[in-house]
Every structure is written in structure tokens, then in C-alpha cells.
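Structure ticket #2291
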Amino acid sequence: MLTAEQIRGARAMLRMDQSDLADAAGVSVETIKRLEAQDGPLTTGRAATVTSVEKALEDGGIIFIAADDENGPGVRLRSSE
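Resolution: structure written out below.
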């Protein structure tokens, strides 16, 4: 499940501001602010909205890393190769 921290981290890695992400995801800046203001897994908001934000970041080069038994969730940049 995508977390608010992953969104903030992914945006930072891509050097996107909230407005850039909102445009790329087709949502309002206020929606991005609400999602990022949460702690942990995104439990509020429409699933379609979260999917749009996730896809916009993935299209920018982000790979989301799921939590496992040893580590929490994370993000990394896709290789440029």
C-alpha cells in the first residue's frame, strides 16, 4: 500500500512540487496536500486518485518498494539504462 512518505520522497527525488504532481496526476493541489499530510499508508481518499498519483510518479521514473519483514516501504529511481 502506498504511503504519504513515499509520495513526498518520490516527489523530492523527481524535484517536483505539489502543483507539478497534481497536474501530472490530473488532481487538485489540495488533493495532493491532503494525501501528503497523512502519516503512513493512504487510508483516506479515493482509490482511483491514489492510483493516478502513483502512476504519475512511476511515469516520472519512480519505483515503489513495498514493505517487507525487515524494512519499511520506500522509493527509488528507475535506472536510466
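Closing remark: The chain has one domain: 4-77.
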